[in-house]
Task: structure prediction
Amino acid sequence: MSAPATTSAMPFTEATRQLIRSHTHNLEYEIDSLLDEERKVLAYTTARLATAQYPAATRVIIRDLCIGDAVACDVDGIEKKLSVDADIAPSLIAMLHRLPTGDSSAWERHLDTIELDVVAALDFSDQYPFQQVQDRIVAYIEEKTGRTVRRVEITSDLWDNGYFYDDTVAVDYADGDSDEILIADMSEFSGELRHEVGDPGPSTVVTIVRTNTGISIR
Result:
């Protein structure tokens, strides 16, 4: 009579388990970053809708998660019905249902009542698609260094779970100097870079150049 087959409660090797932990941690970070970006984009969009329809608006209130009953409200509490464009409504509804309780990127949720701080939301004008990713990267570097950027080169970096945009970029300044700059929040730009130039690979070089006609990316 043969011995019963042995079983294991953990079918993965230690190396594979480490890869799973690393990959899921990175995925969670990317998901959190994308959700935060979505909240900011829709916060700015909603704030612009509110101030276009009611210039005195300081808050938007959405009760029972129903954007059909959304109102713009001024500092005195006077409310006016807010009309939301049909192209924007589905994304806004989906985001509102995912919104956690408490404060999130100018949004504040208590049960099924959500308020938007219009003044705070208007600060998110630097989000894509309101400002292109190449403009945002140049602005980030110029704010950090206090110098005028002429050219930026972004390469790729290989991690355990694939290629990502390297957070250290090569910068040429308008005065002829060059340097390497760390973009600590490269994850904030990664989704937009993928949208503009594709996923990073083993020989990726993204070039951002300032010319007389603007800032280009290729």
The CA atoms of residues 195 and 206 lie 12 Å apart.
